User: What shape does this take?
Amino acid sequence: MLEKRIIDELKKIVGAENVATERQDLICYGYDATQMEFLPDVIVHPASAAEVSRVLRLANAEKIPIFPRGAGSGFSGGALPKGGGIVVVTTRMNRIIRIDSDNLVAEVEPGVVTEQFQQAVEKLGLFYPPDPASLKFSTLGGNVAENAGGPRAVKYGVTRDFVMGLEVVLPSGEIIRTGGETYKGVVGYDLTRLLVGSEGTLGIITRIIFKLLPYPDAKKTMLAVFDAIDGAAQAVSTIIRGKIIPTTLEFMDHATIQCVERRFSLGLPAEGRAVLLIEVDGDRELIEKQAGKIHELIKPLGLVQFRVAQDAAESEQLWKVRRLVSPSLRDVNPDKYNEDIVVPRSKVPEVIRRIERISQNYGIPIVNFGHAGDGNLHVNVMIDKELPGMEEKAHGAIKEIFQAALDLGGTMSGEHGVGLSKAPYIPLELSPVQIATMQAIKKALDPNNILNPGKMFPTQ
Assistant: This one.
């Protein structure tokens, strides 16, 4: 529990109406999508970088932990206040400051919701491609802190590929700007890249400069069903070797297909063992040719069904197959651990087979889907936490899943981050020297370890 004088000082900084200490308010900011829960001591809603700076100066002087938070939609516990402290919520800082159509840049505050930003730039004929599944409610500050990805990453890249500059409040309370509005710049270290994906452990983002693109002329959506995982994986490589880089290449395995079909009866063929949702965008005439070429390229690879959307309504129907996955999973078991491993594209069938063996060994259903174009799979370990020993089994399976990805030249996380949930497994992927180097950077910027302590590393 924080002393009353600290609470009073916070109220002076951001206004009494923007400080919450009631238990019902604390509970609302003590959890995220991981189902873990920790109770903070106080919630603070600053409205500017200056207010964030004053909060951090106070916390640093008093050695009080600070936990930055956007919409709290993360899957790794990155915003959770383990051990108590001050949760700094950035959702009041929600202005789109400007959109520059001449230079194709935009400047925003961290509390802007991702989809609202996309809609604002699209009204001007511009395009911000990163599209995490949480885009309807996640905030841009959180996207930057976690380096969020999404289905369009195979063609356009992830959040870091669109961040040109940042305004950041350091743990000491100092405000710095990194990067800028130019596409080139090599003066000093690339602090922007360091801060993107740092999960709120090095600073609190208060402003972002994004790169934009012209909005594509048209898009074409296709659904391909294969009789084996290998055919779907080969299709991904074959399409790209055919000099076509799709906007999206979404993958669903047999377990996923069964979940969706049982619940929603979308007409997926019974002999289907893997699904690819493929989308291309660009010049209208070009994408028509690309759709035809894709069909020809993948036809010999065990193709069972191929559908092409003729308009936006049909495209939405095809996307339903992917969007209805999450609601379907509860039919398998009530609880899940959603992990996001990445392997080289060609290794997708092998890692799926390894995961199937892990599922059998532990007696736990595991459902796999995700972004086949960049080898990023969402591995859903489905359990019922009410059953004795199930959580321990799940953690054992997860460790083996991570090791399988690493054995195949992959990584434990492509877009969810490390946070609390993956921190115990970090030594599987990073050497002691790598971990020590990162901790040295953390200590240099945050010697009192007040900013998001306990995240990313097994010890700090």
